Amino acid sequence: MKGRLAVGSVVALVLLTSCTSITPKVQGVVIDCAAIAQEKPWVGGTSLECLDGSEGAQLGALRGPMGINVWGSWCGPCKKEIPYFVAFNKKALGKVALVGVDVEEANAKDGQRFVEENGVTWPNLYDPDGRSRQYFGMGVPVTWFIAPDGSVAYKKIGEISSEKELIDLTEKYLGIKL
């Protein structure tokens, strides 16, 4: 009886400790958008402010190589794909810029909290009133691949399913091997 109790206790302890995560969660940072590559001076078009409240960017002036991820903190698929963008960004630094566009939020604080809680460390623009729809269309998530001349090389509608998918799309449409 004592042996069974001891074995049961060990099994329970193993089950309880196996449910905990030993990987520390990376804290995200709401970053100023000054580093976003864009052609200036702006000559009209759709402009968005930065999620941190600073000057943002004119969408038609963005220059790549760049990935633009359109997301919302309320979007389930957006939440699922963010870890792939976090991992991708570590490999792409200095080769491909990553920019987020937070859309359809109740307020900027919700987007800022999402960035901080999900390890996002790249600039994010903020669309409080849907004006980016004319540029990006409706629906999230969507990821755009922008060429150095500002043209759209590819538009991926829907959830990114892996870091490998991001790497493969970057190589195929922007010609950059990571």
Short description:
With 178 residues, this protein is α/β, with parallel strands linked by helices. Helices cover 34% and strands 19% of the residues.
Written description of the protein model:
Strands 2-1-5-4-3-6-7 form a 7-stranded mixed sheet, with helices on one face. The protein is built from 5 helices and 7 strands, in the order αβββαβαβαββα. Helix 2 (76-92) crosses helix 5. It has helices at 2-18, 76-92, 108-117, 133-136, 163-174; strands at 47-50, 57-58, 66-71, 97-103, 124-127, 142-146, 152-157. Helix content is 34%, strand content 19%. The longest helix has 17 residues, at 2-18. The protein is of the alpha/beta class and 178 residues long. It starts with a helix and ends with a helix. The protein has a single domain (26-174), classed as Glutaredoxin.
- According to CATH, what is the topology? Glutaredoxin
CATH level 1 name: Alpha Beta
As a whole number of angstroms, the C-alpha radius of gyration is 20 Å
Report the average pLDDT across residues: 86
Largest sheet: 7 strands, mixed
The tally of beta strands, per DSSP, is 7
Structural class by sheet pairing and helices:
alpha/beta
**Helical amount:** 25-40%
Strand order of the largest sheet: 2-1-5-4-3-6-7
SSE order, one letter for each helix or strand: HEEEHEHEHEEH
- Terminal Cα span: 58 Å
SS element count, helices:
5
Question: In terms of per-residue confidence, which ranges show pLDDT below 50 for 5 or more consecutive residues?
Answer: 4-23
Q: What's the CATH architecture name?
A: 3-Layer(aba) Sandwich
